């Protein structure tokens, strides 16, 4: 009887410790982070899926810059070739490679849209304009999904670094997760060069 009471008290005490140490919060925030990451991947895939139609439409324009098209095709191939697993969330190097590939595709698409301004027939093509609107909408969705993921990782990392939940993190192997960053952080920290040129 005494032994049974002791086991009951030990189980109750262990349960209280697990609740108070953040174990359940780690489970919740880890799932929240994975869900937010899935949405980021969905939006990047949506963008990648638009590229073939965009390239096909642009190829119809006579004398369009072949180098620009080639960069878009290569960047898409690089971005979609990466295998992303749940472990990517805990691997800073894999996360960085993923971000670089996606940034490369984003940059190539931006260049394509800028160059397309020089082609009046392309600008007047309704199919191209529809794809452009879809691409812009997708870029907005990517920004929203990235922001949600960043916030989820921030909440998780605060829990992993705060006392006493950091003890739970160490005991159960909940490492701090790498977050998404701006690939060209050094470049965007520089003030833009403004040149109005000579007035005409």
Describe this structure in words.
The chain is built from 8 helices and no strands. The protein is mainly α and 200 residues long. Helix 2 runs parallel beside helix 4 and helix 2 packs antiparallel against helix 6. 19% of the residues are buried.
How can the largest sheet be summarized?
none
Q: How many individual helices?
A: 8
Gap from first CA to last CA = 99 Å
CATH architecture classification: Up-down Bundle
Radius of gyration equals 24 Å
Series of H and E elements: HHHHHHHH
Shape from CA axes?
elongated
List keywords for this structure.
mainly alpha; disordered C terminus; 8 helices; 200 residues
Summarize the structure.
By secondary structure, the protein is an all-alpha fold. It has eight helices and no strands.
Strand-helix topology:
Elements: H1 2-20, H2 23-59, H3 66-81, H4 92-116, H5 120-124, H6 126-161, H7 165-172, H8 185-188
Helix pairs in contact: 2-3, 2-4, 2-6, 3-4
């Amino acid at each position: 009887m005494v032994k049974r009471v002791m086991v009951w008290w030990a189980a109750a005490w262990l349960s209280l410790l697990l609740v108070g140490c953040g174990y359940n919060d780690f489970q919740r925030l880890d799932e929240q982070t994975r869900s937010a990451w899935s949405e980021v991947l969905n939006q990047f895939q949506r963008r990648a899926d638009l590229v073939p139609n965009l390239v096909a439409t642009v190829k119809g324009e006579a004398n369009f810059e072949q180098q620009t098209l080639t960069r878009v095709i290569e960047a898409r191939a690089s971005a979609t070739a990466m295998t992303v697993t749940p472990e990517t969330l805990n691997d800073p190097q894999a996360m960085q490679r993923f971000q670089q590939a996606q940034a490369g595709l984003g940059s190539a698409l931006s260049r394509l849209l800028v160059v397309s301004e020089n082609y009046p027939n392309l600008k007047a093509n309704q199919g191209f304009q529809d794809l452009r609107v879809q691409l812009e909408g997708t870029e907005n969705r990517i920004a929203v999904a990235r922001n949600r993921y960043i916030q989820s990782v921030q909440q998780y990392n605060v829990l992993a670094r705060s006392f006493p939940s950091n003890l739970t993190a160490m005991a159960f192997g909940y490492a701090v997760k790498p977050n998404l960053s701006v690939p060209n952080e050094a470049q965007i920290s520089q003030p833009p060069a403004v040149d109005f040129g000579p007035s005409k």
